Amino acid sequence: MIKLGVNIDHIATLRQQRREDFPNLCKAAQVCCDAGADGITMHLREDRRHIQDKDVFDIRQNIKTKLNLEMAASAEIVEITLKVRPDSVCLVPEKRQELTTEGGLDVSGQREKLAEAVGRLKSAGICVSMFIEPNILQVEACAQIKADCIEIHTGKYAKLFSKLGGADEKIQAALHLEIGQIKAAAEAAKQEGLIVNAGHGLDYENIPTILKVSHFNEFNIGF
Q: Is 43 part of the annotated catalytic residue set?
């Protein structure tokens, strides 16, 4: 059975706009857990635009299900994570101008830096995932730096799916190609002994096709 992690970042976005302790993140996380979520995902960004340091510690202390922390591989965030001790982390790229994470991490081009972060986190007993595009070279790089998991970025798939209203053959062909790349990446990861997760842009309408892809362990969804 595929697990569901619920991302609560943008509940924090709403709270930060109000400058109050409402909506309360611990209560929101508990609602998700009570409804059957297998875990809570939150992204402690370097600019602290939504999730704050205190949120991560509070959620860690107040939920009984799995905590998955999305994070950049920066020294500051790694140190905080080692204090929080989430069950798992997902290393992601960050751009200050983006509204949400755009694109996967270039693991192949940052092996040394990422291998160091992976090693430190794993030594603390934390399961480490890498957020990547559905690309076999990136999958192989994840295995080489000894990550435990990959999380396939499904954002391009979701955007293409949303444009499927008519009989546009180019969109259909692009969507078919993207699904093929997701399948290939999942298969390659399985062969490398990596756990396979996925996330970004998934919703009730577009997830049935992704469910047909083999080897998925978990989806992380904020919608």
A: yes
